[in-house]
Design a protein that fits this description.
By secondary structure, the chain is of the alpha/beta class. It has one domain. 40% of the residues lie in helices and 15% in strands. The chain contains 5 helices and 5 strands. Strands 2-1-3-4-5 form a 5-stranded parallel beta sheet, with helices on both faces.
């Protein structure tokens, strides 16, 4: 199964970015795209264009999903943002269980 690709929201710890890169995932961040401070709907739209799952702690993305905004997937972590190991394990598990097509317009609660 091909790896999912990710776009990390601006509040996701850089340790997640580094850990995913070490495991050879295609991952980028809001900061690398020059989108820090951009409205969430624009970040979601950019991720959708690039077929990237947005990884976030921000429940505004859940609202955008429930409003019917199209997206390539949202991986939502409702817990402690510093639980790096748990977040990483959850993302890796999601990658093993879901394809990019299955993630389309899907929210995965990590």
């Amino acid at each position: 199964m091909a790896n999912l690709t990710f776009l990390l929201d601006e509040h996701v710890p850089s340790a997640i970015d580094k850990a995913l890169q070490r495991r050879e995932f295609d991952v980028t961040t809001v900061q690398r795209l020059g989108m820090r401070g951009y409205p969430d709907n624009l970040v979601l739209q950019r991720a959708s264009i690039e077929t990237r799952v947005v990884v976030t702690f921000d429940d505004d993305y859940l609202r955008l999903h429930h409003e019917g905004n199209e997206h390539a997937g949202i991986a939502f972590w409702p817990g402690d943002p510093n639980a790096i190991g748990s977040i990483l394990r959850s993302l890796m598990s999601m990658n093993e269980r879901r394809t990019a097509e299955q993630m389309r317009n899907w929210v995965e609660y990590l």
